[in-house]
Specification:
Layout (H helix, E strand, L loop, with lengths): L1 E6 L10 E6 L6 E2 L6 E5 L5 E6 L16 E6 L6 E2 L7 E6 L5 E6 L7 E6 L7 E2 L8 E6 L5 E6 L2 E6 L6 E2 L24 E4 L5 E6 L2 E6 L6 E2 L7 E6 L5 E6 L6 E7 L13 E5 L7 E6 L6 E5 L2 E5 L7 E4 L4 E6 L5 E7 L5 E7 L6 E2 L7 E6 L5 E8 L2 E8 L23 E2 L8 E4 L5 E8 L2 E8 L5 E3 L8 E5 L6 E5 L5 E5 L4
Antiparallel strand pairs: 1-2, 2-3, 4-5, 5-6, 6-7, 8-9, 9-10, 10-11, 12-13, 13-14, 14-15, 16-17, 17-18, 18-19, 20-21, 21-22, 22-23, 24-25, 25-26, 26-27, 28-29, 29-30, 30-31, 32-33, 33-34, 34-35, 36-37, 37-38, 38-39, 40-41, 41-42
Length: 506
């Protein structure tokens, strides 16, 4: 006939919860508890109320102190208030047994975390444990109408336990969504690629969008998804045979290298496969970046902790080649027998060095302690291109690995080390942010963000001609010469669109 509830409607200050009753048919609410009362429950006969008294402001596990809560009992009219528990920790969620002789409640009386205990309603017995949860505490316990079961929260789950004793069990709850609309959507990306890598035959391109890898024909069309993982997948490098690629991902908590291969018996060719598999190649706390295959495909190079490393394509035989820091850029020689790399010293200046691919003594080939980096090695022509700060201007530079051939002398592909640092030439006198040398070494393509805009330029290596290739501040990055057609240049623009520039027009 009455509903029992708690409220802070009292005019006392500071405000506190009190127990009130209100008739089912409506009417005036009447205060029940003498001072501080909440979580009130009627006894089965309705003649008594068990409730919680105390500030109720401390929720941390193991609290012991004056702000603890206790379970109290009073008559239904609010008279004869008496304390049932005197534990100096938290006691809450009182529940009456079916016969009204016992009180169940949640307490840390047996130590944290909190569990359900029971006690004689007259206070003549000590508490007895009903549950023994160890990983997390019991919350919001409620007893069934017949008094046979107690349901409670523990961790993220609901549990039930027989009130007479027994093993609690977790409820298996399934919630099937009935969405008004399909939560999945198909998205077509026409921009936003953060990087790309051309296949060796330049018929396909692998690229990264939103941390996932995709593959599509260079002529356009539908993209094939290569990875599907919440981690950030990037740093793509194709194997020279086009049958696999290596990428970088933080899917195990740090940046490691992974091998991606086709896993489709019906379509075994990598560029035609529908399913793919990954294999982790490295597992270190230090991130690996800048991965690339040797031109002959026998070794894989990468940077780790500012040092240059190589390994087999299956991740075995990891070997440090340059054990000095801070290496930040490198390129393979066309015959896979050497590296050219840029290393910054303690004065934040950098030089270029050449070292055998198997390791050994490195030779400084620039000897110009400003900035030298973004180096590339021509496939033929025996030339290097790099960005260098000289005479207060950062520009493209070209270094010839051999002196001009003497008439009648036998041809040689060996590097002429004598005064090699003096054979650096500047193809163009305009600023350069990044660039690359053509396969034959005759030209360089580079990004220049000078006063006239931020676009792609091409210059002859000997400085005889300078051509602006794009207009409109396209901010080209990842500039790559085609190895099939010397007049084609690939790059990614400011919006993440992969573009192809043909010398003479874009």
């Amino acid at each position: 006939k009455n509903i029992l509830f708690s409220s802070t409607r009292s005019i006392s200050f500071p405000p506190s919860y009190e127990l009130y009753t209100v008739p089912m048919e409506g009417g005036r609410a009447r205060r029940v508890s003498a001072n501080e009362g909440r979580e009130g429950v009627y006894s089965p006969k309705g003649d008594q109320i068990a409730y919680v008294r105390g500030p109720g402001t401390w929720y941390r596990k193991g609290y012991r102190g004056s702000s603890n809560d206790d379970v109290w009992i009073c008559n239904a009219d609010g008279s004869n208030n008496r304390r049932l528990t005197d534990f100096i920790g938290q006691d809450n969620s009182p529940m009456w047994s079916a016969n009204g002789q016992e009180i169940y409640y949640v307490s840390e009386v047996f130590g944290a975390p909190a569990n359900i205990v029971k006690q004689d309603a007259a206070g003549k017995t000590k508490p007895v444990a009903v549950t023994e949860q160890k990983d997390d505490g019991v919350r919001r316990a409620r007893i069934s109408g017949n008094g046979e079961w107690i349901v409670y929260e523990c961790g993220p789950d609901l549990w039930v336990v027989p009130s007479k004793g027994g093993m609690p069990r977790k409820l298996a709850i399934e919630v099937h969504a009935d969405d008004k609309s399909n939560t999945e959507r198909t998205v077509t990306y026409t921009r936003g690629a953060t990087e790309y890598a051309l296949s060796p035959d330049e018929n396909h391109v692998a690229f990264s969008v939103h941390g996932e890898l995709f593959l599509m024909p260079i002529s356009g069309g539908k993209a094939t998804r290569l990875t599907n993982h919440p981690a950030f997948d990037h740093g793509i490098a194709w194997a020279p045979d086009g049958k696999s690629l290596i990428f970088t991902s933080d899917r195990n908590g740090h940046e490691d290298l992974y091998l991606l291969e086709a896993d489709d018996p019906e379509h075994p060719e990598f560029t035609k496969a529908h399913r793919f598999k990954t294999k982790q190649l490295t597992d270190t706390a230090d991130p690996e970046v800048g991965v690339s295959f040797a031109p002959d495909g026998k070794r894989v190079a990468f940077l780790r902790s500012g040092k240059l490393w190589t390994m087999n394509s299956d991740g075995t035989d990891q070997k440090v080649i340059v054990n000095e820091t801070q290496v930040f850029d490198y390129d393979w020689s066309p015959d896979s027998k050497a590296f050219v790399y840029a290393r910054m010293d303690g004065s934040f200046a950098s030089d270029l060095y050449i070292v055998p691919a198997v390791g050994g003594a490195a030779k400084n080939i620039t000897r110009h302690a400003t900035f030298n980096g973004d180096v590339s090695w021509s496939s033929t022509g025996h030339k290097l291109a790099f960005v260098s700060q000289r005479r207060r201007l950062t520009t493209m530079q070209v270094l010839s690995l051999q002196r001009p051939a003497v008439s009648g002398a036998p041809a040689s592909s060996d590097i002429d080390w004598e005064d090699i640092h003096q054979r650096v030439e500047q193809p163009a006198s305009i600023p350069a942010d990044e660039g690359v040398i053509s396969p034959d070494g005759a030209k360089v393509a580079f990004r220049s963000s000078g006063s006239s805009g931020d676009d792609l330029w091409v210059a002859n290596s000997n400085g005889s001609q300078l051509t602006r290739v794009t207009n409109g501040n396209m901010r080209p990055t990842q500039i790559r010469w085609s190895k099939k057609h010397t007049g084609l240049i690939y790059f990614r623009d400011a919006t993440g669109i992969l573009r192809l520039a043909r010398l003479g027009f874009s």
